[in-house]
Design goal:
Length: 257
């Protein structure tokens, strides 16, 4: 059985488990809870069952580092504890009729997001399909990935410290958040574009259908950011002024008010 077929079976099983768990518990963050775990498993299946060689192992190792960091951050925020549901799902439940949220849970939260988690690792399959030795380009992309991982670590630590301190106003505007309203999202997206770059190096071309994972992830985060900001503007009166001077995703120098 090929690595892709194995991962398709795993993805189907995980999708079903997440959906059934959400119905049984009426908590809808089960896909969130495996978000940092499933891609690591997919990457290693591609690396070990495919023929990607050292490049495949490198990609899997970097994805593992990404997953370990994200798992730690999610756990310390209580994401794995009972009741650790993403607050946005509760808001959506209030806004949508019961049947519409049920369809949303099945179609988007369970199916679409789990398919996306497999899709973002498909460049590792491209690597397995195009074996070759590591080169200077791999070293550059690996260094970029590590730098992005460090950036996301700093951004999450700054947000964690901000919430732990219980700062008044509820809007974090210092550190990396002075240059982007969501630097953690930016680094997250960019890391998966770096994973795609390994596939492009292996195949010798950037024109790959396996880029769809990074494309869809970018779209998901942009949409999620817009929804999150709608909530933030309603909760914090200072957020609108912050948004006027600070880039939404890509870090950039603040604009004048």
């Amino acid at each position: 059985m090929s690595a892709l077929v194995v991962n398709l079976w795993v993805c189907g099983a995980v999708t079903a488990a997440c959906y059934l768990a959400s119905v049984a518990t009426r908590e809808y963050s089960w896909t969130d809870r495996i978000w940092s775990i499933a891609p690591v498993a997919y990457a290693w299946v591609f690396a070990l069952r495919g023929d990607g060689g050292a490049r495949g192992v490198l990609v899997a190792a970097l994805v593992t580092a990404w997953g370990a960091r994200l798992t730690f951050n999610f756990a310390r925020r209580g994401g794995y504890a009972p009741g650790g549901e993403d607050y946005r799902w509760a808001i959506l439940r209030e806004r949508l009729p019961c049947w519409r949220f049920g369809a949303f849970n099945l179609g988007f939260i369970a199916i679409y997001q789990n398919v996306l988690l497999l899709a973002i690792t498909l460049p590792a399959w491209t690597v397995a399909q195009n074996p070759g030795p590591l080169g200077a380009a791999d070293a550059v992309v690996a260094a970029v990935f590590v730098a992005l991982l460090a950036g996301e670590t700093v951004a999450d630590q700054q947000r964690w410290a901000f919430h732990r301190e219980g700062a008044p106003g509820g809007v974090l505007t210092t550190g990396l958040y002075r240059f982007s309203r969501h630097p953690n999202y930016f680094f997250e997206i960019a890391q998966w574009w770096a994973v795609y770059a390994f596939g492009a190096i292996a195949a010798g071309t950037p024109w790959l259908w396996t880029a769809m994972g990074a494309v869809l992830l970018t779209g998901l985060f942009v949409g999620s950011t817009l929804f999150t900001e709608q909530i933030s503007r309603g909760r914090h009166s200072a957020y609108a002024a912050y948004a006027r001077t600070t880039s939404m995703l890509v870090p950039w120098w603040p604009r004048r008010a």
